[in-house]
Amino acid sequence: MKTDKWSSYPTRHAMRALGILVFTYVILIFALPANSQVTRQYHLSGLEYHVLLFAVVLPSLAVWFTAFYSYSKLYQYARSIPKAPEGSDFKRLADGCTWLAWSLPAPAIISLLLFAVANTHQGFRGTAIIVVNYVSLLMPLIGFSLIGGAARSLVGRAKVHFKPSSIRAVVLFFVTVGVLYCYLSFRHLDLGSLGTTHNPYHLPVWLAVLTIIIPYLYAWFVGLLAAYEITVYSKQVRGLLYRQPLQMLVGGLVMVVVSSIVLEYINAVEPRVGHLVLNLKLLLTLAFRIAGGLGFALIAVGARRLKKIEEV
Amino acid sequence: MPASNSTSLYDQLVRVTHVYLGPAADRFIARQVQNHLNKPPDQLSKEDLRRLIDWIQVAVSLLTEDSEIVEEYAAQLSKLAQSDGTSKKSR
Q: Is the ipTM above a cut-off of 0.95?
């Protein structure tokens, strides 16, 4: 009985945290004043605005649930193999997924709060955008770094062989993604005056490049490399019945990493404005958020099946 | 898989299981021996093997619906039961 409690602790803990976050978020959606710009633009009453906002975030809430559930399952699996050499790697993988899961509600709640203040105090808008941009950057950066460390350790332990051609393909893909991101980001920056803050980041150009664009590129490189390494590991590791759930877990991880990258890409093309806009960006954001949610679901199923191997 | 005198019965079981359960093989066999035969893995003897294979078959059936894999795995384990000269070393 004590063992059951011990193994279910991560799920109870994650669900309790999620419950608090969802409750806070929903309360804020209905309690904070409606954005006058949005209500004017779409001819909405205050109540209609709140209901619309709630309807728009509903899929995201489902994704949050999947994300929190999946990292808790990954922790449960890591806890079921405490003495195994790969146990610490799965623990680190779970840590990384935890940061990625928390990177969904944390910026959402912070932006809801800060932009509500910015609606009444226009001078605060820049600060709100800066804070939301840094929070949105830092959490996945930490998550990708942890997942990258875990992937490298798993690969090193299993003595996995990489094909030079596939490494070249990863590098080529990253260079393409990186150059395109720089092009899309720089379109919004006045490169003729590096000190100006008249850009969507509300930062001097040099600071935006150093503290937003470069860290994003680094995070994506670490994320893509981890996705690649862990995919190769899951294909080469021995164990017919072990490989199936592991590949499921890894497939989910790749989906989460890629969807996270695409979501930031979308923000580069169409930077945050601080209020609800019903456009193609919102539709694409929801689509890739749901794709990330499916990735988290795959992680959860994979982790559960791996744990079952340790139970029978 | 040829039986080697320098390898214990337990190690041979793990080696066969590694093909199916990878890094979880060692833990899986140790658990089956402890839970179903109620003895430490290093005391596994050839006489225990038939009963252990039955339990392993049940356990693996819970992990996959592919009966071919279960039967193939059981057949590999049964080969160990038929081979000789290994149980003494396992004690």
A: no
